[in-house]
Amino acid sequence: MATGLVQNEVVTGLRPTAEASPRSQLSQWGSAWRYAVMIVVALVVYVIFLGAVLERHDVNPDLIDDQPLWIQVLPLSEVILGLATIGALPFRRRWPLLIAVMSAALMSFSATAIAGAALAATSNATRRRPRSLLVVGIVWLCAGLILSAWSMRPGAVAWVIPVIMMTTYALSVTIGLYVGARRDLIASLRTRAHEAEREAALRVAAARATERTLIAREMHDVLAHRISLIAVHAGALDYRTDLSTERSTEAASLIRENARRALVELRHVLDVLGDRDERSPQPTLAQLEALLEETRQAGMRVTATVAARIEELPDEVSRCAYRVVQESVTNVRKHAPGAQVRLLIEGQPGGILMVEVGNAVPRDRIEAPPHSGHGLAGLSQRVEILDGQFSSGPEDGGFVTRAWLPWRETETA
């Protein structure tokens, strides 16, 4: 549950700065330069086309009022249809095919509309849909044929305008396909970047959860032992009203001393987990006698048999074995006070170190302090990390904890 909360906290904290979509809105500058280029092209086409039509039909600009009606309205119609094409362009991103077809159709009556139609065709090509490209291409071809039919003088080359228009359309489609592919590539890279950020956040969350678990396990191992000793001595003061002043003072001194040691050991744990470069040594089986002596001072009866050269154990194995003994006797003190405790440690290099802690049926019962239920689970994880085996459970009316740890002969303490 803690890990999930941390992961959700980290992942939901990610806020992509831009939507990973190739259809995102253009910037103001991006739109401005496109329209500027289109207007310049439209003006150039307007001048060239209008001059070519007047020349093809031998029209004198000074006598244009004497020409047919369509010649008279041609300059104005070119401007109006060109502006209509430009006015429809802002909607090309919402309805790309419709705007591209409409702009191409207007070219049937206005060559000036070719500038806006080219931009609409480019925008439609960025979608890279073959069917829409084919439809727009057919409309362009038809528009070129119609424009050539009414604007060219009889007998002139009829294929010039359609070829120019289809070449322009091919260039627009090529640019559109390139732009569309580039946008999709950028969108893909953005998606991968966001996924990489999420994966990195999940790895950080998992590392934090692991570190918190390690801190909780170390604090449990250290504080549970000391606090259980304090609880035992405080319980004795509470239930034993016949204690002498000297015994009461001794019990109070033991409570104070264990409280002080709990604080010192807690500080050592935080030093180890917080600064790996300045860590204090963690207890090993070298401190086994001190642990058993504290347990006996708490009123417990402990019988220990050590049939192994524990001073030759590797550090990590010795630390794990110490934690197994510490947690086991702490559990006996909390849940089976007054019970006889037996400890057996045996093994040899190149083989298996076996640690067994068991207790008989308790002779009396008092209210036990609350427990987390994670002590034995933490021991099991410690042992499994070292490729060992762990078991615990009731046996002969009592409770027995066993751990088998590999003792590699090549390693020395």
UniProtKB/TrEMBL annotation:
Residues 211-275 form the Signal transduction histidine kinase subgroup 3 dimerisation and phosphoacceptor domain. SUPFAM superfamilies: ATPase domain of HSP90 chaperone/DNA topoisomerase II/histidine kinase. Pfam families: HisKA_3. Its EC number is 2.7.13.3. The keyword Phosphoprotein applies. InterPro entries: HATPase_C_sf (IPR036890), Sensor_HK_TwoCompSys (IPR050482), Sig_transdc_His_kin_sub3_dim/P (IPR011712). Keywords: ATP-binding, Kinase, Membrane, Nucleotide-binding, Phosphoprotein, Transferase, Transmembrane, Transmembrane helix, Two-component regulatory system. One of its GO terms (molecular function) is kinase activity. It is an enzyme of class 2 (transferase). The chain crosses the membrane at residues 32-53, 73-91, 97-121, 133-150, 156-180. It catalyses: ATP + protein L-histidine = ADP + protein N-phospho-L-histidine. This is histidine kinase. It comes from Microbacterium amylolyticum.
